[in-house]
Structure formats: structure tokens, C-alpha cells
Write a structure and sequence with these properties.
The complex is a heterodimer of chains A (about 180) and B (about 280). Chain A has about 180 residues and is mostly helical. Helices cover about 60% and strands about 0% of the residues of chain A. Chain B has a single domain, classed as Thiamin diphosphate (ThDP)-binding fold, Pyr/PP domains (Rossmann fold). Classes of the chains: A mainly alpha (about 180), B alpha/beta (about 280).
Chain lengths: ~180, ~280
């Protein structure tokens, strides 16, 4: 458990909720970017899955915004001033470098599982660190919700087991050196 | 963190600076994150789109003008800095940001880079460095390490030392020099904001992995580290730090105090007179 990394988000309700909105916004943007890139490679099934995940993230962002409305306007935070739990960006922003043009729904859901786990860990860290009882209550609720998302993604993964070896083999690969 | 005291204003969002054109970079390409960083930087600064110009040369990374909603110019290979310099001098009120890759910037456009640094026109150059020519299917570039032998053109490696962009920029007189990593788009956004705000010619080298031709660059995520020193205005100190760095240090190396190049401020001819010279 770290104490320094989540300091900003743990210090006040406004900053905590600003972090929560950013967490989902960056996640949604990243899923959309992944969907765009997979569409460009005609991997329609995975592109649609990423698009759906982006939709869920936006829905969660809007839910957080609704909660935030009860606490007044959110403070303005520059992108680089957000402090996460050992990640350089939103813990729910999928790792771009793990994308592959031939990736399957299984791989996409594994990426999503990591994101949800990181989100849960972040909220748990805030709940543990904060001295503000309202932040602690909200962070625990959000951590529980992320835990629910982890379970949901894992149920989806049951429908998409690990693909056999060779899923990334391409007889005409784009990286054939010339 | 004084910004936290300011209530959220209805300002532009990063999405406002993205165009309708969808990128066709490879899935996993670091350039997606640079695009995200750029739009976050523009939104944070609240740049007016009609007063912002995004200029590029040729290459994967040079596609950025198409993906942003500011004014864009997708120029000739290696000539982005020449075009951008002319634009800034003709329209000094514009914010001019130039994008390109390591091949476009240091090989085809190497000569322009040297003179852009010494001329010190007030604009920002973001070099997305993946140490390979990706668009032409994976040849060694000026920043490729000498032992990389995956290209058929250099089966035993290039055998020559790579260009060090940070050192070169400092040596040639750039007024602001920094290095970022695409895996930290928020960190890159901050560097771009600082670079745009700093007077004179600003160079931001962004390590941006090519997952297609250099898949081993995924390992950069664990190789990068904070540069660990405060920015200096002294090019000699910045150069020493750059020489001691392993090429993966992130941060601002130099924030110099040279005055930007500015023309006399008086037009040598009217637009009508200039047009006459081009009349056919």
C-alpha cells in the first residue's frame, strides 16, 4: 500500500470525485482509441467489444458526475496533477502496448480485467489513506463497485477462453521486413 | 496545486481538438498516446483552434495534423520545420506546433533541424522517436542503435552511432529541450504545455514505441525513469546532464533564456506585390 501516490485524491471530497471522473473518462477515451485502431484493421468483433467497454466507462463517469453534483462544482485539475496508485495515467486506462491487430475478445477482456482490478486497488488505497470520512465512505463504495466489475469481466471471460497458440500467426504480416 | 482552488470552468476538452478522421496507426502504437497528450495539452491551455497550427513532415507520426482539429499542414518529407518557421514568422500571433518522427527530423530533415535550433523561432517541435522507419516497413533510422539487425538493409546492424536528439538540440541552440515517454501521456502533455509557453524553439523528444517493427520497445515502459534534475537555463549544464543520461531519462533538460528570432517587423513588400511575382 502506498500513501504518497494517492495523496491528492484522498485529501478532499472534491478532489476525490475529480479523480473518479478522470479515471472513467481516460478509460473511455482509451477504449475508444483501441476500438478505432482495431476497426482500421478490420477486427470488427474486438473493435465492438472495446466500443462497448468505452460505453460502460462513460456510463460510470456519468454516475460519478451525478454523485458529484451533490457536492458542488469539481475543482479543476491539470491532467498531470492527478495522482494514481503506481500508474502514470488513470488506472482504468488500458495498456495500449498490449493491443495487437489479431487480438481476440479474450485478450481484450484480459486487458479490461487488469483495468478494473487497478481501479479497485486505487479506490481501496484512497479509502485506506484518507482522513476525510466522506471520502472514505465514497472510496469504499467505489472500490466495491469496481470489485463487481472485476467479477463481471471474469464471467464474460468464461465465454471467451484462452485462444490456442498461433492466434497471432499471419501468413502475410504487416511487419515483413523489406 | 493552486489550480485545485479554481472551480471547473466550461473550457475546451481534449475531444474538441480531435478531428473526425480516425488514426490508422497500428494497434499498440505509441503515437496514439502522443495524440492524446497533444489534445490534453491544447485543452489545458485553452488554445484557440483558429490560432493554432499543427505542421508535420512525412511518416507515421506526421499524420497528426489530420487527426487534430486545429489548422494543419502536412508538408514535404523533412521540411516541416522550414514550413513551420515561415508560418510563424509570417503570422507571429499563431501557436505553431510541429510533429514528426526520427527519420523525418534527423535524417531527411536533419539540416533543417540544426538551423531551426540555432535560429530559435518561437515554436515547438515534438519528435516521436521510435528508432525506426515504420511507414516504409522497418529500416534503421538515425536514432537506431548500431547493433539492430532486423532489417534486410542492415543485416549486421548499421554499425554507426545513433544521433542523440537531446544532445544535438542543446548543442545547436534550441532554447527548451525535454524528453517524454508515450506511456505517460499526461507527463508528455505537461512537457508540451511547458514547451509551448517557453519562448524560442522548443524540442520535445517523445520515446514512442513501434510495436510492429520494434516490439522489444514495449520494454521501454520499465526502462524510462525521471531525469532527476531541475531544469537549467545553462546549456553547458544541460549538455553535461544529457551526456550522463542513459537516453531514458524523462524531464526538462534545458529551459534557456535566448531571445527568440524575430524579423525586423516591417514587411519588405505588400501581399499584392508578392502575388505579382507568382502571377502566370
Amino acid at each position: 500500500m502506498t500513501t504518497a501516490r494517492v495523496q491528492n485524491g484522498a485529501s478532499s471530497v472534491g478532489l476525490f470525485l475529480a479523480h473518479a471522473v478522470e479515471l472513467e473518462s481516460e478509460a473511455a477515451d482509451r477504449y475508444d482509441e483501441l476500438a478505432d485502431s482495431l476497426e482500421a484493421y478490420n477486427n470488427v468483433e474486438v473493435a465492438q467489444l472495446f466500443r462497448d467497454l468505452a460505453g460502460y466507462s462513460r456510463k460510470h463517469r456519468d454516475q460519478v458526475k451525478s454523485i458529484a453534483d451533490e457536492f458542488g462544482p469539481l475543482p479543476k485539475v491539470a491532467p498531470w496533477e492527478f495522482q494514481w496508485d503506481h500508474t502514470a495515467e488513470s488506472p482504468e486506462a488500458a495498456a495500449f502496448e498490449n493491443a495487437h491487430y489479431l487480438m481476440t475478445p479474450h485478450h481484450a477482456l484480459k486487458m479490461a480485467e487488469v483495468c478494473e482490478l487497478q481501479g479497485q486497488k486505487y479506490y481501496a488505497a484512497v479509502a485506506s489513506e484518507t482522513k476525510d470520512p466522506t471520502v472514505a465512505t465514497l472510496a469504499r463504495e467505489f472500490a466495491d463497485e469496481e470489485g463487481g466489475h472485476v467479477e463481471l469481466v471474469r464471467r464474460w471471460l468464461e465465454r471467451y477462453p484462452t485462444p490456442p497458440e498461433g492466434w497471432d500467426e499471419d501468413p502475410d504480416p504487416p511487419n515483413y521486413s523489406e | 496545486m493552486d489550480t485545485h482552488l479554481i472551480e471547473q470552468a466550461a473550457g475546451p476538452t481534449p475531444q474538441d481538438y480531435k478531428s473526425e478522421v480516425k488514426p490508422i496507426w497500428c494497434p499498440g502504437c505509441g503515437d496514439y498516446s502522443v495524440l492524446a497528450a497533444v489534445t490534453r495539452a491544447f485543452a489545458t491551455m485553452g488554445l484557440e483552434k483558429h490560432n493554432t497550427a499543427v505542421v508535420s513532415g512525412i511518416g507515421c507520426s506526421s499524420r497528426i495534423p489530420a487527426y487534430t482539429s486545429a489548422y494543419g499542414f502536412h508538408g514535404v518529407h523533412g521540411r516541416a520545420l522550414a514550413a513551420a518557421g515561415g508560418l510563424k514568422l509570417a503570422r507571429p500571433e499563431l501557436t505553431v506546433v510541429v510533429f514528426g518522427g526520427d527519420g523525418d527530423g534527423f535524417s531527411i530533415g536533419g539540416n533543417h533541424f540544426l538551423h531551426a535550433c540555432r535560429r530559435n523561432v518561437d515554436m515547438t517541435y515534438v519528435v516521436m522517436d521510435n528508432q525506426v522507419y515504420g511507414m516504409t516497413k522497418g529500416q534503421a533510422s538515425p536514432t537506431t542503435e548500431p547493433t539492430w539487425c532486423e532489417s534486410k538493409l542492415t543485416p549486421e546492424g548499421t554499425g554507426v552511432n545513433p544521433i542523440q536528439p537531446v544532445q544535438l538540440a542543446i548543442a545547436c541552440g534550441a532554447n527548451f529541450v525535454a524528453r517524454g515517454f508515450s506511456g505517460d501521456p499526461n507527463g508528455v502533455a505537461k512537457l508540451i504545455v511547458e514547451a509551448i509557453k517557453h519562448p524560442g524553439f522548443s524540442v520535445v523528444q517523445v520515446l514512442s514505441p513501434c510495436v510492429t517493427f520494434r516490439p522489444e520497445q514495449k520494454g521501454w515502459k520499465s526502462a524510462v525513469h525521471p531525469y532527476g534534475r531541475e531544469p537549467t537555463e545553462d546549456p553547458a549544464l544541460a549538455m553535461r546532464a544529457a551526456l550522463e543520461d542513459d537516453g531514458f531519462g524523462l524531464g526538462i533538460f534545458l529551459a534557456g533564456n535566448r531571445l527568440p528570432f524575430a524579423p525586423a517587423g516591417k514587411a519588405v513588400a505588400s501581399i499584392d506585390e508578392l502575388e505579382q511575382e507568382f502571377a502566370v
